[in-house]
Write a structure and sequence with these properties.
It is built from 1 helix and 10 strands, in the order H-E-E-E-E-E-E-E-E-E-E. It is mostly beta strands.
Length: 149
């Protein structure tokens, strides 16, 4: 019985040490491994006409968006009707070039302006950013104002 207590005590001590250990200087903030942009999105559209909402993830050297983990983009419009509200990896317009190991995802979501006024396209992007050492879930909330003329 004393053997079980000593193993339990050692395990508790190890857990305490891990939780109390300071973050390693080598650890990288996953958010520093990429940029998310809405450049190219329509900001002014006439009522009844179409625009486009663009979301792109640009990874930095040594990082990539996981091809195995979920990649989701949920889109909603205010004063706008989006062509598709739920998108996944298969909806990305970016494809791998010859010899390219990974492609940075880019979405181009068409929308139709409903009525004049201030509108917006709002989205939630979920993906995993990976390097040789980590693979971390990322979530970004995006909003692009659209003036409907």
């Amino acid at each position: 019985m004393s053997h079980i207590r000593s193993v339990t005590s050692v395990a508790a001590l190890l857990v305490a040490c891990v939780w109390a250990a300071p973050a390693s200087a080598n650890e990288v903030d996953p958010a520093s491994l990429y940029d998310v942009s809405t450049d190219g999105s329509s900001s002014q559209v006439k009522a009844g006409e179409k625009g486009v909402f663009v979301v792109s993830v640009k990874t930095k050297s040594g990082a990539h968006v996981s091809e195995e983990a979920p990649l989701k983009l949920d889109v909603k419009g205010t004063q706008l009707t989006v062509a598709k509200e739920k998108l996944g990896r298969e909806d990305s317009v970016s494809k791998k070039a010859a010899g390219q190991e990974f492609a940075d995802p880019r979405f181009e979501v068409p929308f139709t302006a409903v009525a004049a006024g201030k509108g917006s396209v709002d989205a939630k992007l979920v993906f995993f950013i990976c390097t040789e050492k980590i693979c971390a879930r990322q979530q970004k909330t995006l909003s692009v104002p659209v003036e409907v003329l």
